[in-house]
Amino acid sequence: MKAIIVAIVLAVGGWWYFIGGRTITPEQVNAFYREYEAATLNREPEKLCALIADEYSSEAVVRAPGLARPRVDILNKQQTCESLRQTFEAWEELGNRMGGMLHLDSKYSLKDIQIAPNRKQATVEVQSTLEIGGSLMSMRTKSHDTLIRRNGKVLLLRSEGTGTISAGG
Predict the structure, then answer these.
(1) What is the pLDDT of residue 94?
(2) H or E element: which one contains 48?
(3) Residue whose C-alpha is closest to residue 165's, from 70, 61, 64
(4) pTM of the entire structure?
């Protein structure tokens, strides 16, 4: 009897690890972006990092005031997380210098969600805007993201896109 129970537990665990905990749905994709936006607005870089797969990679063409040409950023998870920490620290410092916390306002739109036939990854076309300090600074992005699901958690695996940073307005 004990062997039967162990076999059932192993079968269920194996199903969850290889199938149930790895398939992704459009609803889970939408929930991922809601969670990502909430962590951004709550200024929680560690929560953002927890939403990124260990083997994450990104490539972004960035346009910003003061850059003669667009800059190409190619980052892994560690570099992305460090950049997020530094960005949030800089915003906090800027807010302190201005006499308070900088207001963040976020809007995003999922233009297209494609679930792979095996349901193990999703490719998402995303447009987003992040306003920092009202009209102080604006970041607009367009990206194609690849999401996966591991052990029941949706993670960002790859992102390719463009970003424009503008000041004042």
Answers:
(1) 87
(2) helix 45-50
(3) 64
(4) 0.85
